[in-house]
Amino acid sequence: MKRLLHWMIATVLALAAGLAGAAEVLLGPGDVVKATVYGSPDLAIETRVSESGTLTFPLLGEVQVGGLSTQQAEKKIGGLLEKGGYLKKAQVNLLITTLASQQVSVLGQVNRPGRYPVDGPRKVLDLLALAGGIGPEGGDMVSLVRTRQGQTTRETIDVVDMVRKGELNRDYEVAGGDIIFVERAPRAYITGEVQRPGPFRIERAMTVQQALSAGGGLTMRGTERGLQITRRDASGVPRTIEVKGNDLVQIDDVITVQESWF
Known about the structure:
With 262 residues, the protein is an alpha+beta fold. It folds into 3 domains: 32-98, wza like fold, CATH 3.30.1950.10; 102-184, Outer membrane lipoprotein wza fold like, CATH 3.10.560; 187-257, Outer membrane lipoprotein wza domain like (Outer membrane lipoprotein wza fold like), CATH 3.10.560. The chain has helices spanning 2-19, 70-83, 124-130, 159-165, 208-214; strands spanning 32-37, 45-48, 54-57, 61-64, 92-98, 103-108, 114-117, 122-123, 138-148, 151-158, 173-174, 179-184, 187-192, 198-201, 228-232, 238-242, 254-257. The strands form 5 sheets. Strands 7-6-12-9-10 form a 5-stranded mixed beta sheet. A 5-stranded mixed beta sheet has the order 14-13-17-15-16, with helices on one face. The protein has a 3-stranded antiparallel beta sheet with strand order 2-1-5, covered by helices on one side. Strand 9 and strand 10 form a beta hairpin.
């Protein structure tokens, strides 16, 4: 079931990357554009949009293009060339060669962490797909940190639950400057008379019995009688309690398997 669910998530991520909209991206500081004017090769340039959102264009000087789509910027530059009497009919073409202003950082437990351009409407699943998907150490929870109108917020997305229920409307749209962080899968620990003592990944609704299986099962001297968990209480103080096989495991639990004396 877990393998099937991971396949489903991988499929959704692939579709999200392939079907993302190709709407015009807005120009911003740091973007590099290549401009050509039909019939006027001497006006061809490649330039960077300044921090104030302007680019330097031959004959025109500084032109404000920040916040415009490439199509809007083309019309604006063409209009200025015609208004200035430089050309009767200016056909301008702009091509973004480096998209620096609209990038999202994808960090944490993904296969290819880094910064990715937002070249149109994109959502969290789109960016996870571009980053190669969630890595083997990644958990189900993804954090989205974004700033809108000067306010920074943090949203948490349960990717597995969202895909399992088909509720893709819970996916958030992203914009340049956003940060996506994939948490590491929660861990607990098992020690004592098991085949593979040490940390293990906690699956959803994982029981102590399943944790024993994750530890490779009991050794020849191990017993399921007297199973104990050391767990921190609400105040952070570690407490040791006796548990049964069907009790649920919590994050950072330390399960101790006793040695059988019979």
